[in-house]
UniProtKB/TrEMBL annotation, chain A:
This is CbaC protein. It comes from the Archaea. The chain crosses the membrane at residues 33-55. Keywords: Membrane, Transmembrane, Transmembrane helix. It comes from Natronorubrum halalkaliphilum. The keyword Membrane applies.
UniProtKB/TrEMBL annotation, chain B:
It is found in: Cell envelope. GO terms for cellular component: membrane. It comes from the Archaea. Keywords: Copper, Membrane, Metal-binding, Transmembrane, Transmembrane helix. PANTHER family: CYTOCHROME C OXIDASE SUBUNIT II, NITROUS-OXIDE REDUCTASE. It holds the Pfam family COX2. This is Cytochrome C oxidase subunit II.
From TrEMBL, chain C:
PANTHER family: CYTOCHROME C OXIDASE SUBUNIT 1, CYTOCHROME C OXIDASE SUBUNIT I. Residues 23-521 form the Cytochrome oxidase subunit I profile domain. It is found in: Membrane. GO terms for biological process: aerobic respiration. SUPFAM superfamilies: Cytochrome c oxidase subunit I-like. It comes from Natronorubrum halalkaliphilum. CDD domains: ba3-like_Oxidase_I (cd01660). The keyword Phosphoprotein does not apply. GO terms for molecular function: cytochrome-c oxidase activity; heme binding. The chain crosses the membrane at residues 21-42, 62-85, 97-121, 141-163, 183-207, 227-250, 262-280, 292-316, 344-364, 384-404, 416-436, 472-495, 526-547. This is Cytochrome C oxidase subunit I. The keyword Iron applies.
Amino acid sequence: MRISKAGLLIVLALLAPLLVELRTVLSWINVELGVLETAVIGALIVGVILVWAFLPENGDDESSETDVSKSGP
Amino acid sequence: MNIHTYEKVWLIAALVLIVGFIATITYGSVALGITMVGDQEETIEPSELNDDERFGEPRVEQVGENEYEAYVIAQTFTFYPDPIEVPADSEVTFYVTSRDVIHSFSVAGTNINTMVIPGEVSKMTVEFDEPDEYGVVCNEYCGDFHHTMEGLLHVVPEDEFDMTELSVEADDEIELGDEATFDVAVENAALDDLETTVTLEIGNETFEETITVAGGETHETTFEVDSSELGEGDHDWTVTVDDYEESGTLTVVEDLEDEDETDDGDDEDGDDDSDGDTDGGEDDE
Amino acid sequence: MSEARDAYIDNFPAEAKVVRAAFYSSFFALALGGVFGIIQTLHRTDFYRFIDPADYYTVLTAHGVFLVISFTIFFLVGIFTWAITTSLDREVEDIRFTWAWYLLMAVGITLSGIAILAGFIDSIDMSASVLFTFYAPLQAHPLFYIGLVLFVVGTWLAGLDWFRSWWAWKAENPDERIPLPTFMVLTTTLMWYLATLGVAVAILFFLLPWSLGLIETVNPLLTRTLFWFFGHPVVYFWLMPAYMMWYIMLPKVSGGKLFSDPLARVVFVLFLILSVPTGIHHQYLDPGIAEGFKFIAMTNTMFLLLPSLLTAFTVVASMEHGARQRGGTGYVGWLKALPWRDPVFAGMALAGLMFAAAGFSGMINAGMNINYLVHNTFWVVGHFHLTVGTAVALTFMAVTYWFLPQVTGKALWSRSVALGQVVLWFVGMTFMSNAMHRGGLLGIPRRTAEPQYDGFEFEAAVGSVGELDAQVALGGVLLTLSLVLFFANVIGTALNGRSDALPANEYAETLSGPEDAPLVLDNLKLWTAIAVVLVIFAYTFPLLSIIDRGGLLGPDVNPFPVSLESVAFLTFAVEHLGTAALESAGNAVQTVVPGVIR
């Protein structure tokens, strides 16, 4: 794993406010998302994070750190 | 005191932010004229609202060309008047007070929002540009049925707005041969004079009168109808002034006296009488 | 007792019992408040309604009072007692006195609680469905006010207990700086004394005599203003223990030290002097208070942002320091090195993050004119569920996972459940408070059983009101689940056997210690004097003007609901008892005095 289980849990938790506000932010540029669409997008992002987290750590450390920070606070 | 450089920068940035907030709010108040509910209004006795010049009859009143004043009472669990009707493209000053506990007068989705405290009068001046319909809620808990306390604020197009009010007082029952009287009052709360026609339709007959009601005044007129023309039985009647309509039923009987004497009939009669004196504005709903 | 163990219960066994009792009282209130919370959430959003709408307001009163009075303040007296004893390293002066104030608080809140909960039972002629703010002319049963008075007096005595410890310590250590945790306790207590004056006057001089029928009327604007004199600083009374935890516990659990002791003192001094003269910002929409007074309250409020912004810096800097001690590197990479596995840390960090969001909605509330859009709407509810409902509550729950073993001597039942619990609270509150804020912008009112109206509908800019309701309900359910996990852990820990492997009873050291702080910071008399002067400036004229306008006892308005029968009885009982007491006192004097003279 590239990130500790607890770290992964926190990253996923921090996703909640981002997803919830995503609709509001997108509506400013006239993109109207429904609840279902938001849920699908959320599931996709969660999937990507999970895949990334569980990939064996064979890349260079530098990139993995930047990735964490992007999804982090 | 030993303060880290970054912390100093942060401290200064925080102070700039705070001063900035205060500056924008001050700009809003001073330059944009966003005034607050304040202490401009005198206090008022909540138990004496009925005798008050402004709140005795909660209403919208015209005070200038496009200027109106609305006197609103909030009480458990209603607003008076309801709905409140004002024209578009106008400036309305609301005066709101409470008859009992603390309420609020809050027009949903706008910044027309004030606490309504017994003994105090909230004053707010609002500009309405476009016709619209707003819900009014009480957003301060005021008792068991607080959630049912609601009202409506209609901003109607200017050409559809008038401040005419019609009320009719009429007999319910008369003896054959007597004159039936219809006392019609037309109130004009607008500033300009109102020229209009009052129409009474009863049975197959129509009576008309053209009247001029001065601004802020009430014009009273009386129609007298000979019951022998109508004949015995029930007769539906309608009084019309512009878009306002008031109607009822007149019963012509051969002999009244007996019924009047009996005690049983008295209560009902009393009720019927007050029913005849209804308010045109309300009936319109 | 094993030699190796150095937990709080080992050093202060008697105090640990009081702290434990305070914690359990606090958790009991949290459980009640949580049950009422979920009932309300489901009722309001129309997902599940099984109570009469009128009972909603009893539920709401219970939710408010039990959570923001009992839960928060019982927890506070627990950790403040811990902080005093630990940082001064001395036992309380008299443990009987400590138990006395705890019991007084417990009796007080029980009486108020009875008055509130009796509202559910029609056959009992008693109710107090007046919400946490008890605005007159809404009138509660006298028992409600009496209970509150006893509770507050209990907190005053608790404060006295802490001061006694400090005075005794100072006599023995005349040249030492006040230890930081003690400093925080003392400044917060001083602020509390000042703040509670408002509510004490409101209840003792007006509301209680009025509910007993001794006076006919009260001035609603006056009692309301006196309430907010107390009502705003009380939020800092909830928040200060959370701040204390962020200053003295969070750096330690992050693996480092507190960034700056002097600035921590500055922050608490600022809260002492600025907390009280701001209450009128809750009354921006009140008729009868001049715009100028509102403006003064607004500027004070804005300056109150300063200590919170300073705290944000110190907390993050201390966390970063800890992370780097643990081997963290990079501009943001250090975040990965933080002990996210530790529920104490994770809970406090998430609580701090949510408090930042709450700060933004708070700035909107404080903005005198923009406040008109959101005042008393659901937005405000969203705001304080982020502040007291998360920054405070989540911090308390997180530190419980550290304190509970300290005061019970037993190991935490499950660290994993604890971590899940704090994360679930964060996610649940995200959903709930977000929807509340957005609902408020549409004008949906707060404190309303069924905000679905006949004549009109609220129009959502994005999504729909139905979606917002669903979001609130989802959040409420997640929060309830989180509470269930919390109580499972508390009960599991209480039932655990004695543990020999507890961490020592310590708090964070500092990078820049008290020796860097100017001595004047410890001059509590000076700061109290300044606080009093500011309060006089901010409140004298508004109060005088309110009394001048409306009279001391206000206009002729009936209490609502109208006085209950039992009140008359209680008045009679009080008078009767009073007379009896006087008589017996008189008799006693008659028998004693001649004896003395002879």
